[in-house]
Structures are given as C-alpha cells and as structure tokens.
Amino acid sequence: MPETQNQASTINPALEEAMAISLRGVDELLPREDWLKKLQRAQSTGIPLRIKLGLDPTAPDIHLGHTVVLNKMRQLQNLGHQVIFLIGDFTSLIGDPSGRNSTRPPLTEEQIKHNAQTYYQQASLVLDPEKTEIRYNSEWCNGLGSTGMIQLAAKYTVARMMERDDFHKRFHSGQSISIHEFLYPLMQGYDSVALKSDLELGGTDQKFNLLMGRHLQQEYGQEPQCVLTMPLLVGLDGVDKMSKSKNNYIGITEEANAMFAKTLSISDDLMWDWYTLLSFRSLDEIAELKAQVQQGRNPKDAKVLLAKEITTRFHSAAAAEAAEQDFINRSKGGIPDDIPEVTLSGAPLGIGQLLKSAGLTASTGEGNRLIDGGGVRVDGAAISDRGLKLESGTYVVQVGKRKFARVTLAN
Questions:
Q1: Is 244 assigned a ligand-binding role in the annotation?
Q2: Could you say which of 119, 174, 193, 382 is the most buried, measured as most Cβ atoms within 10 Å of its Cβ?
Q3: Where does this protein hold ATP (predicted)?
Q4: Lowest mean pLDDT: which of 15-19, 61-65, 248-252, 325-329?
C-alpha cells in the first residue's frame, strides 16, 4: 500500500480536529506533513509538543493585533500542548530588523524591564497562565559568550542572510545595514535550539526568523521545528495593519465601552477577517452567521456579537452587556451612566470657555466650530448660540456622540 494511504489510514477524528485547529486562519504551516507527524507522535506517546512564541517587549502594551498569534497559542494549548511564552529581553537589546527600512534603535535594559513587567500579565488574558511556561532568552544568550557567538555566526552565510527581503531591499537602495542586525535572526533561531521547540509561531513578517530556527536546530542535531505564520490583523481603518503608530488599534487593556464601540466601527467586510482571527467561535458557527447575513440579517447583529465576545474576553460578560447598553444610549442621544463630574467657577460662563475648561474641547475656537455644526448639547438641547452664557447650576454637556460631562457651575 502506498505510504500516503498508510498515513491517511492513521488519521483519526482527534487528529483531524487538531490539524483543523492548527490550520485555522493561518497564512502558512511549514512543513505541513512534519507537523502532522509531530501531532501523531504526541497522540501516540502522550508527550505534549513544545510550542514557542517569542515577543520582544518593544512597547509596554499589547493590542488586538498581537493577540492573533496568542489566540492560536491558546487553541493549541487547549489541545494539551506545552506553550512557551518567550520574552526576548536579550534580543530586544539588538532590535528586530524585520520589515524595517532602517536600523531599529535598540532598547535600553531599563526600557526592556519596564515593558516586560506588563507583557506577560496582558498575554495571560488570552493564554492559560497555569499552563504556560514563561522564559527569557537572556537565560541562554548571556551565557554564550564571545566564543559561543562566533561559533553560532559560523552556522549561517552572509549570502543566505542577504536573501532576506528587508536586508536585500536596504542593500540595493543604499540603506545602511549594521553587522549587529545579522545577529538578530541568529539569536532568535538559537532560542529554538535552547527550548527544543516543535513549533514556532509568528506573524508573516517573521518567516525568515522562524525558518532560521529550523536551520539551526538541524545544525545542532535536533529535530527541526515546524513554522506557523499568522496574517497581520488589519486595523480599524480597514487599510493598514493594526499599529499604535497608525492609531488604528484597540489595546487589550482599554476601557470596555471604548473596546466595544471601536469594534463596532470596523467595516462589514473586515468583520469576517476579525471573526476568523480573533473569535473563539467555531468555523461552522461563523459560516452560519455569515450565511444569515447574506440572506438578509443585519450585519450589525454579527458585529455586536463579535464586539461582545472581545469585550467579555478582556473584561467580563457584565462589562460587555453594559458597554452594549452604553453604545445604545449614545446612539439614541441618551446619557451614559458613568460620565465625568466637573466643577467649575465663574458663572455666568460662556459656553465656549465652559467646553474648554471641562475638557470637552481643546480650545474655545474648537467649541465654537462644534456649536456651528450642531455638535453641542446642554441637557439634551442642541446649542446654536456661540454667545450663550450659563448661570450657576448643574448641566449635562455633550460634545459629538461620545463626549459627556456633568458640569457643576458655581459663581
């Protein structure tokens, strides 16, 4: 009987499910056949596979884009495998050149320690902390020393390194490449050797670094890891990948009402990509929901379900329900339950100055423009007079759809 038929005959329902979960939403799984063999071995021996994700603490906070890979880790963790959350405190000192058109400034040790303090705490909102191995790559990188570093560097050629897309482009465009940047993929690959990983995950921009791990494991006589890359999550603008620099992100520690409302702001088309990459619903459930929308169900219903799922994950079911009600109140012009309380003096006070002093606008000029556009309400009534002065008392002041303050004005 051909080998492929023998292999197919050993794929039982549990193995099929494990492969389906592994492949959900992925960009690439390399080599797929090797991963299937690893899953089969784990199933037959009961020894969990070692699954690695490395993140450099380049910023103190994690956004939903980062959780795409963390979600995949959690799915594999739920299958019973050992996930390793690797904090790249050593590699952060080098600076990851991936996707860069210039040398990335390395972080200081103080910055790294500060950022790493919150990284794992936030990642634990997705991963099961009791079943997660936390490691820092300074554990083995610091011990390499100059001799070990030279021996490691001898295991890869400059020609192969220059095949990397960002190095290739920078070289041919005359952009500088520092020697230390060549060390980054080598050190990330060496992490896989130190951890004896069976699978390493990352974004599509990390493919070169992940494959380096396979190469170095073979050089050190280990069974090479498989590589799984996940797509980069498109941000709120529907154009660029989610990024703080693009201001198109949702931080996973953002307040529940903002998280819910921002999720509802994405386009109907983008929603389905978010479902695949961020939701823990089964693919069958998502397909059924999509079919209902295609048959006439309001797409907003599906978006609300997604917004509630995401908000529940990082807050609670009660917070998600409250956020939905807050959104409904705002959309109807209602007043949220929790609005800032502001106390001001100087009554009678001009409306423009009041808006600025209450922190609802950056300037009186901005306030006047909003008044002209019908964007300012006091106790639910639209204001059209720039010259309005408010006497002492308490007022609910609204700017646009989302900014509210309960202003107590004294003489």
A1: yes
A2: 119
A3: 244
A4: 325-329
Strands 393-399 and 199-203: unpaired
pLDDT, one tens digit per residue, over 146-173 is 888 888 888 877 777 777 777 767 777 8
Shared-domain flag, residues 56 and 193: yes
**One domain for residues 47 and 127:** yes
Q: Which of 203, 229, 200, 215 is nearest to 161 (CA)?
A: 215
| Separation of CA 21 from chain center | 19
Alpha carbons 261 and 248: distance in angstroms, whole number: 13
Domain extent, residue 180, equals 3-230
pLDDT tens per residue, range 168-222: 677 778 887 777 777 888 888 999 999 999 999 998 888 888 999 999 999 999 9
Residue 376 sits in a domain whose CATH number is 3.10.290.10
Whether residues 207 and 269 share a domain: the answer is: no
DSSP percent split of the chain into helix, strand, coil, nearest 5: 50, 15, 35
Region of 188 on the Ramachandran plot (φ > 0 left; ψ -120 to 50 alpha; else beta): alpha
Tokens of 354: 């009041």
Q: How many domains does the chain have?
A: 3
Higher pLDDT, residue 89 or 276? 276
Q: Do 389 and 309 fall into the same domain?
A: no
Buried b (16+ CB within 10 A) or exposed e, 203-221: bebbbbbbbbbbbbbebee
Same structural domain, 214 and 346? no
Q: How far apart, in whole angstroms, are the C-alpha atoms of residue 89 and residue 80? A: 27
Specify whether 49 is located in the same domain as 187. yes
Q: What digits encode the pLDDT tens for the residues 264-287?
A: 989 999 999 999 999 999 989 999
Please, what is the average pLDDT of the chain?
87
Provide the sign of the torsion angle of the four alpha carbons 374, 377, 381, 387, taken in this order.
negative
Residue 234's closest CA among 249, 256, 224, 212?
249
Tokens of 160: 């192969």
Q: How far apart are the first and last CA of the chain?
A: 94
DSSP string spanning 54-78? EE--SSS--BHHHHHHHHHHHHHHH
Strands (DSSP E) along 79-212, which ranges? 82-87, 132-136, 199-203
What DSSP line would sit under 239-283, residue for residue? SSBP-TTTT---BTTS-HHHHHHHHHTS-HHHHHHHHHHH--S-H
